[in-house]
Amino acid sequence: MLLRRLYRAALPLGVRRLLAEARLRRLVRRGRLAHLHEHYPHYDVSAAQIEEDVEEALINGMGYARDVAALLGRATSPWPNLAGLSVLEIGPGLTIGSLLVCAAAGAETAALDAFPVRWRREYHASFYPRFVEAAQRRWPELNWSLAARLARAEGGDADAVVRVIAADLACASSMQEAVAERGFDAIVSNAALEHVSDMSQAARQLARLTRLGGVGVHLVDFRQHCDPDRPLEFLAMPDERFDRLFARRQGREGNRVRASELAGMFAQAGFDVRRVDVLDRADPHYVERLRPKMQPRFAHLDIADLLTLSARFKLKRSGNGGPGEAAAGAGAAQGGRSG
User: Fold this and answer.
1) What is the 3-state secondary structure (H, E, C) of the chain?
2) For residue 165, what is the domain's CATH number?
3) pLDDT for 34-71, tens place per residue?
4) What is the pTM of this model?
């Protein structure tokens, strides 16, 4: 054991990191670290990154709050009114900062993640106090008591102040066991649904958890995440190769579902797709060069669909779904406006 440690210590840092990542993947596959996503051991704990994460959480959270209030016909100015509403965030990631903004606006909150992140002193002990300081300075009229409790809870996980549900949105049995009740007023997510392995199943679970008349706000990133300069290369991969890559990297690449397909899944599940705002588009010349290499099911899509790199979906739970709603949803994706 000592010789092995000395040998590894002599290796270049990059090689040591690759070995550590390979070992982590083996442990996850064997179920030894089923709660841990391979991304989380390597996140940046620098002060500059924490400042950036605080700002992103505040912006995303206020966006959630305003969108939910507007979709439910509530006041959005000067502050969104979420009093008495229940809000569930899918895949909050490293922190529940965005959800804490909804709580400050009056909502009862919960989070659902297949890999809930546990407290890490070097990151969270800096993030949450900094988050509360920035939030109180920016929006002093809101109630930040829940966020302040988490900031004071040394070594406290997010479930010290909100309900955290560990479940895979794409697994019906996992979801039934973890979340038996229905009736959230709003379900929100930011760059989470593209990492789900079965988006049709996920859309049905979202519909099950949303009360009739309830709403959804989901920002989805349609890029292949490993290469921002070539964001659609995975559309050319044979399905079998892509499935292996997706499983090995625990969904980090993105699931290849396109915007029109996702809108159709939402509609079939029972949502009225109220609006699809396209936020980012690919270079048309890049898409046209890549298109002949794409798998047929992607190559035949409308060019507007292929150009869409990210979009925000605004939904309302309307009923049981059906072919008519699915067609309407697909049309909404094609007609989405830039945000």
Assistant:
1) CHHHHHHHHCCCHHHHHHHHHHHHHHHHHCCCCCCCCCCHHHCCCCHHHHHHHHHHHHHHHHHHHHHHHHHCCCCCCCCCCCCCCEEEEECCCCCCHHHHHHHHCCCEEEEEECCCCCCCHHHHHHHHHHHHHHHHHHCCCCCCHHHHHHHHCCCCCHHHCCEEEECCCCCHHHHHHHCCCCCEEEEEEECCHHHCCCHHHHHHHHHHHEEEEEEEEEEEECCCCCCCCCCCHHHHCCHHHHHHHHHHCCCCCCCCCCHHHHHHHHHHHCEEEEEEEEEEECCHHHHHHHHHHCCHHHHCCCHHHHHEEEEEEEEEECCCCCHHHHHHHHHHHHCCEEC
2) 3.40.50.150
3) 444 444 556 788 999 999 999 999 999 999 999 999 99
4) 0.83
